[in-house]
Specification:
Blueprint (H helix, E strand, L loop, with lengths): L13 H5 L15 E7 L5 E7 L1 H5 L3 E6 L31 E2 L5 E7 L2 H10 L1 E6 L35 H7 L2 E9 L11 E6 L5 E5 L4 H12 L6 E4 L15 H13 L3 E4 L14 E9 L5 E12 L12 H5 L4 E10 L13 H18 L4 H7 L4 E2 L4 E2 L5 H12 L11 E3 L2 E13 L5 E7 L5 E5 L8 H12 L7 E5 L15 H26 L13 E4 L2 E4 L6 E3 H5 L7 E7 L3 H4 L5 E13 L4 E12 L6 H20 L5 E2 L4 E2 L17 E6 L18 H4 L1 H13 L5 E2 L8
Parallel strand pairs: 1-11, 7-31, 9-10, 13-14, 20-21, 27-30
Antiparallel strand pairs: 1-5, 2-4, 2-6, 3-5, 7-12, 8-9, 8-11, 12-13, 15-16, 17-18, 18-26, 19-20, 19-25, 22-23, 23-24, 26-27, 28-29
The chain binds dioxothiomolybdenum(VI) ion (MOS).
C-alpha cells in the first residue's frame, strides 16, 4: 500500500520554515555567548609579518584576538586529518602558521562580547604582510596542467576511462567535424544562509555545536579528530540548512575557529561569515575544455575527444567528473577523454550543484548541436541516431534509461516540431527567437546509511537519521516512506534529522539521499514492523498466532490479515503490551553492490529552451523551458518538481549570469556581493515546465528512485547556448553568455 509515496504532499517542514520557527546555526542562543569576527587576508600569497592587535584588545568587551601567534598547539597542525569530502592533498589548517595561501584566507579571529564590538575591533587591527608573486589565472597557466593525484575521495569521482579506438585517425577521416574551446570562470556558492557555527560550551567541557553543514556527522568527526575530543563530548546539530548545494559537504573554517575559541575561552561562541567571506572557502572551479567530434555523412558519431583542464589550489587536488559523460551518453568507437589540473594560488574548489556534470555537458552538448547542424540533422534526431543503451566507458547496460521518452515527451510539450532549423529564422516582432535543446545525465548513487524507527506508547511513529535536508524535501519524502512502510496515517509520523545523536548517515550530496536514507528508513520501518508482528503473535488470543509475515499487511495503523482485512490488531494495542515502553528498531541499509555493479545507473533528462535575443542590446531572456526527466520512481511530484525547477533556474543563472570575476593583480574575487555577483531575480524566470517520464528500476536501490538534486541544472546551459545560436547564428563558447559576447 502506498497512499503517500507518489503523492504531492506539502513539505512537512514548510510551516516551520515560513513562520520563522525553523532555527538556523547562527540563531541558537546560549548564556554568556561571545561573538567572533573573522579577519581575512588581503593578499593572495606570502606571509603575515606582524599583527598589531593592541588597540583592539584595549577596548572594553574585546576578549581575545586569535591568530597563528597565540593559537593553541593541536596535533592536527602537524598531521593531516581530512573531512569526509576532502580531496587528495593536505587540508587547509586555519591559523596554522604565518603563511598565506590565498586571498581571503582567515588570518585572525576577534572575539568580543557583541558582534558589533568584534567587527569594530577587527577594523582596528593592523596586519602587515610580506607579499609573494601569485598565479591565479587559469588561462595563463594551462602549460602547467598535470594529472590529478588520486585518493580515497576519487572513488566517487573516477578519472576518465582509457582511450578506446583511434580518435586521431577516425577524426581526420570523418565526413563531418567540429572542434571548439569552451571556457567558464569560477562561480561561488550564494545560498541564503551564510556559513555559521554556534558552539555551546557545556559545564562538563562538552560541546554542543549548531553548524551549517550538509552532514552533522562529518562536522562531528572533524571536530573530534582535529581537536582530539572523544565523540561523546561533541554533539553536532543541524536540523535546517538555508541552502547547501555542495559548499556544506566540507566543514568550513568558521567551525574550526568557533571551536578553537570556545575551548580556549571556555565559553560559548558564535562565528558567522559575511556575504563577502562566502567567496573565500571554495568555488566551482574555472575550466577550459576542448571538444572535437567527428561523424559520418549520415550523422553517426564516430570520434569523440573531450579534454578538460580545471583549477585547483596549491595544497589539494579537487577533482570532478567533467569528461566521462561523453562515453556514457554516446556510442562512438573512437574516444579519448582527458582531465587535468592546474594548481593556482586560490582556495581549493568545492562541489557545486552537479559538479563537473554541468561543466562537461555545457561544452559537450553544444558541440553535439554544432555537429548535428553540420550533418544536416535536427538536434533531437541526431541524438536519437546516436543513442546508447550501454555506458560505453564501463561497457555495462543501464539499469534503466527512458531518455528516448524524455526526448519525445519533452519535444511534444515544447512544440519542437514547429521549429524552423535555420539560425535567425524565428522572430517575435523585433526580437530574435531561438529554440535549443540538450541532454542531461547524472549518476544515481546509493550509499550505506542507518535509521531508527520508534513506535511510541501513544501509537505515533518517530523515525530519525543523522542526514540533512538542504532544501531538497528530505523531511517530507522520509515521512512519506515511513508512513507507507508501516501503514500509518502521515499525521502520526514524524521524521527527524540533523543530529549526531541519531543513527549515522552520509553527507547529503551527490543526489543520493532519497535512495540512501530512504532505503534506511524503509528497512528500519520494516524491521520495526516485524518486531511488532512478533509481539502481536504473542498477545492473548492473537488472531496471528499461526500466521506468517507474508500473510499480513500494515494498514491504517493496524496489522491486518491479507485474506480477511477485518482480522486486525492495532499498533497501539501492540505497543500497549510492552510495559509502558516504546518499541524501537535501528537498522542499516547497505547497497546491493554485487547486483548494482553489473549495471550503469544514471538519471537522464532532455531540456528544451526558448530564448529571445534583443540584437540591439545583446540581451538574452529565457522565455520558456521544458525539462523531461527519467528519474525512476518519483516519491513526491511536488518536491521533485521543485528540485528540477531549482536546477533549471540555476542553469539559467550559469548560462546567462553567474561568474566570479577575479582581479589577477590582487588574486582576489572582486564581485563578492549579491549586488555584483549576478543570480536570477524573479523577473529573469519565466515559464518553466517539468515532465517526469515513467521509469521503473529495480536495480538502483530498493525504492527505485534515482535522485533529482542535480539533474535539473545539467543540460540547461548548453540548451541555452544552443538556443542562442539558433536565434543569432553565433556560437558562444564561453559562459555566462553576457550581452558583450553577442554584440
Ligand atoms: Mo551536491 S554539489 O553533491 O551538494
Amino acid at each position: 500500500m502506498t497512499p503517500y509515496i507518489g503523492k504531492p504532499i506539502n513539505r512537512v517542514d514548510g510551516v516551520a520554515k515560513v513562520t520563522g520557527k525553523a532555527k538556523y546555526a547562527a540563531e541558537y542562543k546560549a548564556a554568556d555567548l561571545a561573538h567572533g569576527w573573522v579577519i581575512s587576508s588581503s593578499i593572495a600569497k606570502g606571509k603575515v609579518t606582524r599583527i598589531d592587535a593592541e588597540a583592539a584588545l584595549q577596548l572594553p568587551g574585546v576578549i581575545q584576538v586569535f591568530s597563528h601567534e597565540n593559537r593553541p598547539s593541536l596535533a592536527w597542525f602537524d598531521m593531516s586529518y581530512k573531512d569526509q569530502d576532502a580531496p587528495p592533498g593536505s587540508p587547509f589548517r586555519p591559523l596554522r602558521d604565518a603563511t598565506v595561501k590565498y586571498s581571503g584566507q582567515p588570518v585572525a579571529l576577534v572575539v568580543a562580547e557583541t558582534l558589533e564590538l568584534a567587527r569594530y575591533a577587527a577594523s582596528l587591527i593592523r596586519i602587515e604582510y610580506e607579499e609573494e608573486e601569485h598565479e591565479t589565472a587559469l588561462e595563463h597557466n594551462l602549460h602547467r596542467a598535470r594529472e590529478p593525484k588520486s585518493g580515497v575521495a576519487t572513488l566517487l569521482k573516477p578519472p576518465p576511462p582509457k582511450p578506446r579506438g583511434d580518435f586521431e585517425k577516425d577524426f581526420r577521416a570523418a565526413a563531418v567535424q567540429v572542434s571548439g574551446t569552451y571556457v567558464h570562470s569560477a562561480e561561488h556558492h550564494n545560498p541564503m544562509e551564510m556559513f555559521a557555527t554556534t558552539v555551546v560550551y557545556e559545564k562538563n567541557n562538552k560541546l554542543t555545536i549548531y553548524d551549517k553543514t550538509q552532514g552533522a556527522p562529518n562536522s562531528q568527526l572533524y571536530v573530534s579528530q582535529v581537536f582530539g575530543i572523544p565523540f561523546k563530548d561533541v554533539r553536532v546539530i543541524s536540523p535546517y540548512v538555508g541552502g547547501g548545494f555542495g559548499a556544506g559537504l566540507r566543514p568550513q573554517y568558521q567551525l574550526f575557529l568557533a571551536v578553537l575559541a570556545a575551548r580556549e575561552l571556555k565559553r560559548s561562541i558564535r562565528v558567522s561569515l559575511t556575504r563577502q567571506q562566502m567567496f573565500t572557502f571554495g568555488h566551482r572551479p574555472a575550466c577550459v575544455q576542448q571538444v572535437s567530434l567527428g561523424a559520418s555523412a549520415e550523422g553517426k558519431l564516430e570520434a569523440i575527444r573531450h579534454d578538460a583542464v580545471g583549477e585547483t589550489s596549491q595544497f589539494e587536488d579537487y577533482t570532478e567528473i567533467v569528461v566521462n559523460w561523453a562515453g556514457m551518453l554516446y556510442p562512438a568507437q573512437n574516444v579519448t577523454l582527458t582531465y587535468n589540473l592546474v594548481p593556482l594560488d586560490v582556495y581549493t574548489p568545492i562541489d557545486m550543484r552537479a559538479p563537473g556534470g554541468v561543466t562537461g555537458l555545457s561544452a559537450l552538448e553544444c558541440a553535439i548541436d554544432e555537429l548535428a547542424y553540420k550533418a544536416g540533422l535536427d538536434p533531437v534526431e541526431f541524438r536519437l541516431k546516436n543513442y546508447t543503451e550501454r555506458d560505453m566507458n564501463e561497457d555495462l547496460p543501464y539499469s534503466s534509461k527512458e531518455l528516448r521518452e524524455c526526448f519525445r515527451q519533452g519535444a511534444e510539450r515544447f512544440g519542437w516540431a514547429n521549429r524552423t532549423p535555420e539560425p535567425r529564422s524565428m522572430r517575435n516582432g523585433h526580437t530574435l527567437v531561438g529554440w535549443g535543446m540538450a541532454t542531461g545525465i547524472w549518476e544515481s548513487m546509493h550509499m550505506p546509511a542507518r535509521a531508527e524507527a520508534v513506535l511510541t506508547v501513544n501509537g505515533k511513529l518517530r523515525v530519525s537519521s543523522a542526514t540533512a535536508d538542504i532544501g531538497t524535501g528530505t523531511y517530507t519524502i522520509m515521512t512519506q516512506i515511513a508512513a507507507d512502510t508501516l501503514g500509518m496515517p502521515i499525521e502520526d509520523v514524524i521524521f527527524r534529522l540533523g543530529d549526531t545523536d541519531m543513527p549515522l548517515a552520509p553527507i547529503q550530496g551527490g543526489s543520493w539521499t532519497a535512495a540512501t536514507v530512504g532505503s534506511a528508513v524503509k528497512v528500519a520501518c520494516e524491521d520495526l514492523g516485524k518486531k511488532l508482528f512478533k509481539m502481536a503473535q504473542k498477545m492473548k488470543q492473537s488472531p496471528f498466532a499461526d500466521v506468517k509475515l507474508d500473510e499480513i499487511v500494515f494498514e491504517n495503523a493496524h496489522i491486518r490479515l491479507k485474506a480477511d482485512p477485518s482480522v486486525a490488531v492495532s499498533l497501539l494495542d501492540i505497543v500497549g503490551t510492552n510495559g509502558g515502553r516504546a518499541v524501537s528498531e535501528t537498522s542499516t541499509s547497505l547497497p546491493n553492490m554485487l547486483e548494482q555493479r553489473k549495471y550503469a545507473r544514471a538519471v537522464h533528462s532532455a531540456v528544451f529552451v526558448e530564448v529571445e535575443v534583443d540584437e540591439d542590446f545583446g540581451t538574452v531572456r529565457v522565455t520558456r523551458a521544458v525539462t523531461a526527466v527519467a528519474g525512476g520512481r518519483i516519491l513526491n511530484p511536488k518536491t521533485a518538481r521543485s528540485q528540477i525547477i531549482g536546477g533549471m533556474v540555476w542553469g539559467i543563472s550559469k548560462g546567462l549570469e553567474e561568474e566570479s570575476v577575479m582581479d589577477h593583480q590582487f588574486g582576489r574575487f572582486m564581485n563578492h556581493s549579491l549586488a555584483e555577483y549576478h543570480v536570477p531575480v524573479n523577473a529573469d524566470i519565466q515559464d518553466l515546465d517539468v515532465i517526469f517520464v515513467e521509469e521503473t528500476d529495480t536495480i538502483v536501490n530498493p525504492l527505485g528512485v534515482k535522485g533529482l538534486g542535480e539533474i535539473g541544472i545539467v543540460g540547461m546551459p548548453a540548451a541555452i547556448a544552443n538556443a542562442v545560436f539558433h536565434a543569432t547564428g553565433k556560437r558562444i563558447r564561453s559562459l555566462p553568455i553576457t550581452l558583450d559576447k553577442l554584440l
